[in-house]
TrEMBL record:
Protein name listed in UniProt: Flavin-dependent thymidylate synthase
Cofactor(s) needed for function: FAD
Co-factor binding comment: Binds 4 FAD per tetramer. Each FAD binding site is formed by three monomers.
Binding site for dUMP: E79, F80, H81, R82, E91, E92, S93, G94, R95, R163, R190
Physiological role: Catalyzes the reductive methylation of 2'-deoxyuridine-5'-monophosphate (dUMP) to 2'-deoxythymidine-5'-monophosphate (dTMP) while utilizing 5,10-methylenetetrahydrofolate (mTHF) as the methyl donor, and NADPH and FADH(2) as the reductant.
Source organism of the structure: Sphaerisporangium krabiense
Pathway noted in the entry: Pyrimidine metabolism; dTTP biosynthesis
E.C. code: 2.1.1.148
Amino acid sequence: MEFVSDVTVELVRHSAADSDVVWAARVSTAGEQSLEALHQDPERSKGLINFLMRDRHGSPFEHNSMTFFISAPILVFREFHRHRVGWSYNEESGRYRELQPVFYVPGRERKLVQQGKPGRYDFVAGDDEQYKLVTEAMEDSYRHSYEAYQEMLKAGVAREVARAVLPVGLFSSMYATCNARSLMHFLSLRTKDERATVPSFPQREIEMVAEKMEALWAGLMPLTHAAFNASGRVAP
């Protein structure tokens, strides 16, 4: 049995570059152009991307694709799958394979205590006793649930039935495919950033996934990423 406090995000394939945005946008005024021509005037391309982002001309940001492999606790995917427009998902199935005993336990840096009322609250660090309680309670619960799961499987119970005893702290994995526009919508809601015009208060576990995805995307489309931040992290 393995207890994990982090998530995994890998970029497994992509067709995504700033030039995709410029190419898609300029076809409306200049017709079809070669990608080589677009690279000849990088400052003009930067200005165009900033204009598109600022004035929320969103469709040019859809002509690209990124596929991520994500391994995280099931509780993350239950939030993730609320993002439907511009996303495709394939998650591992507990009906067809035996689920492995990898479970989420918050690290010491994860703030544990919620203060304030719904809609007006904040999280603060827990004390040593609270972290000890969380760790021991989660690990003990995980052990009992996985033992029950294994007991049913050994007795011949179908995987799709036996999995019902497993908690949302169990790790799952999926492929998630999106374009830059759908990713920006995701990031605007699932990250907390001082540059954001509209504040967001994501659960830390999905924010951990979002931060890793953003870093990978920023490497592919740095001009688009910079324009996103300059525009208050509001998706076009």
